[in-house]
TrEMBL record:
This is PucR family transcriptional regulator. Residues 1-22, 226-274 are annotated as: Disordered. Coiled coil: none annotated. Residues 254-267 have a biased composition (Pro residues). Residues 485-542 form the PucR C-terminal helix-turn-helix domain. Signal peptide: none annotated. It comes from Streptomyces griseofuscus. Residues 28-146 form the Purine catabolism PurC-like domain. Residues 1-14, 229-253 have a biased composition (Low complexity). Gene3D superfamilies: PucR C-terminal helix-turn-helix domain (1.10.10.2840).
Length: 544
């Protein structure tokens, strides 16, 4: 019978396993409801399984993917006495297919586990479990998936907590060292930030052995851009790095000048991994484009470690990109000058976005997401979509405000409702901010993705601004102590007296709108059914 078994090519080393959290075999053995007993093979936390599979095939090799706990009742085994080579060949094929362990079910076919099978599993290093008669194979498989779900949930919780912890660290006064410290703690290892020249700028965690440190530094060169920003590609290696890591293809022989590569340099990977002296190494190129690299050395490499390290790399990309780019420095300078008493007109030239709009007109945009409450990440993503780094998340967490170059004319953004002001210079940005707010309210009330403030001149421009503002202040004085009434009246008038649309725009009940409008009319002594009164109030509200 052994000679009649089908043949298949030997599985390559490191057979692929499914991308699910592995289950330690010890956790399965600890389940009292299963009453499993290990008879042979290695033990310990490193012995893991990825799923359970039942097969009574003489040769299960073609049906295994790797990482399985293979369950069998021995239906395919020959009757005693067993051939000398059968079990050795069977176990060898399971191991070659990447099987993680073998479970042998007692009854109804066999009353005990064959001794030859125990010997074969011990010889090939395959864990062998005895499955008692009262335990079904489906019960074992269910237990595997339950343990796997618990492991997945624990890993998700670990990653989520690490993300929150890293985000908190990024808000510290010393963000880069704080992020590295928190990253080293979460990964149980060492984290280091390499500069564009390959030197370590900051590090946290217990430093590894010198050989591991050197291996991590070399791994960082694999992901660092071949040509650092601001340097021409000449074949000259940066200080402290081997010439071979930077020499372009087509390197000239010694004594001759290097020749330029025939085409663009091959793209570097965003991350790379390696091991040195049993320590797991990882390197991540930071997206700031400045040549910074995050290096991590840890004694283990769990499934969520890459995700956690990637979050750290993203945060460090933002930190290094902002503090080491000219635009970021200019914006910081503008902020400092404003805090020290400068006017918007004086600092506007520092807000250069590289598109020729330095100090020129800009558009104010107010935006609200259609579903969730906006956060800092969503606000930054919206700024990227509209092509501006000048983003402000409202303290109430409901509106995002942006300053966009006037020449870019914001277009609708999926998932957002936008209110857009007319173009204005630095001195007119506060008025443009009010325009954008009113445009957003109208967009939400009419349920359209974008509303622009009308730029066409009107009769109100015939009245000097100072006189119009003084008239508005006097007319609306009875409402000065109740801004909610003023906002409700403005929105209600802009929507032609629609109670429902005003309620939608303000996020309140329609009865609340009615009560506020009635209260405002009473305080103003105004008949809101009179179109002349409405026109005068609208004029005043636009200049208030």
């Amino acid at each position: 019978m052994a000679d009649a078994r089908p043949t298949a090519p030997t599985a390559p080393a490191g057979a692929p396993v499914p991308p699910t959290p592995p289950v330690p075999l010890s956790a399965l053995l600890a389940r009292d409801d299963l009453a499993l007993r290990q008879l042979a093979g290695p033990t310990g936390p490193d012995v893991v399984i990825h799923w359970a599979h039942t097969s009574e095939m003489v040769d299960p090799f073609p049906y295994l993917l790797g990482g399985e706990l293979l369950l069998t009742a021995g239906v395919q085994f020959p009757d005693a006495p067993f051939p000398d080579t059968f079990f050795d060949s069977y176990v060898a094929r399971v191991v070659a297919a990447g099987g993680a362990a073998l479970g042998f079910g007692l009854a109804p076919v066999h009353d005990s586990v064959p001794d030859a099978l125990v010997t074969a599993c011990a010889t090939h290093g395959l864990p062998l479990l005895e499955v008692p008669p009262g335990t079904t194979f489906s019960g074992v498989a269910r237990a595997v998936w339950q343990l796997m779900a618990q492991a997945r949930l624990a890993e998700l919780r670990r990653v989520t907590e690490a993300q929150q912890s890293l985000a908190t660290a990024a808000a510290h006064a010393d963000p880069v060292p704080s992020v590295l410290r928190r990253l080293a703690q979460r990964l149980g290892g060492h984290a280091v930030l390499y500069g564009p020249d390959g030197t370590g700028i900051a590090a946290a965690g217990r430093a590894p052995a010198p050989a591991v440190t050197e291996a991590l530094r070399k791994l960082a060169t694999v992901v660092r851009p071949a040509t650092p920003p601001g340097q021409a590609q000449t074949g000259q290696a940066p200080p402290g790095q081997a010439q071979t890591s930077r020499a372009p293809t087509g390197q000239a022989p010694p004594g001759k000048p290097p020749t330029a590569p025939a085409g663009p340099a091959p793209a570097r990977p965003a991350s790379a991994t390696d091991t040195a002296d049993g320590v797991h190494l990882s390197a991540y190129a930071l997206g700031s484009g400045e040549g910074f690299v995050l290096g991590v050395a840890a004694g283990r490499r769990d499934g969520g470690d890459h995700t956690i390290a990637s979050v750290g790399a993203v945060l460090l990309s933002l930190l290094t990109g902002e503090h080491h780019s000219g635009a970021g420095a200019a914006r910081s300078s503008a902020l400092v000058r404003l805090l020290l008493g400068a006017t918007p007109e004086e600092v506007a030239p520092l807000l250069d976005t590289g598109d020729g709009t330095s100090g020129g007109e800009r558009i104010v945009v107010h935006a609200r997401p259609d579903r969730q409450t906006p956060d800092a990440v969503a606000a930054a993503a919206l700024g990227t979509a509209l092509g501006t780094p000048l983003v402000d998340l409202d303290p109430d967490g409901e509106v995002v405000r942006l300053l966009v170059p006037a020449g870019r004319g914001p277009a609708p953004v999926p998932g957002w409702t936008l209110g857009v002001s007319a173009p204005a210079g630095a001195g007119g940005w506060p008025a443009a901010d009010a325009q954008a707010a009113r445009a957003l309210a109208r967009a939400r009330a009419t349920r359209v993705p974008l509303v622009r403030h009308g730029a066409r001149p009107g009769l109100s421009e015939l009245v000097p601004e100072t006189a119009a503002r003084a008239h508005a202040q006097a007319l609306l004085a009875p409402l000065a102590a109740q801004p909610a009434l003023t906002d409700t009246l403005r929105t209600w008038l802009s929507l032609h007296g629609s109670w429902d649309r005003t309620a939608v725009a303000l996020g309140v009940h329609r009865n609340t709108v009615r009560q506020r409008v009635a209260r405002a009319a009473l305080l103003l002594g105004a008949d809101l059914d009179d179109p002349d009164v409405r026109m005068e109030l609208w004029f005043a509200l636009r200049h208030s």
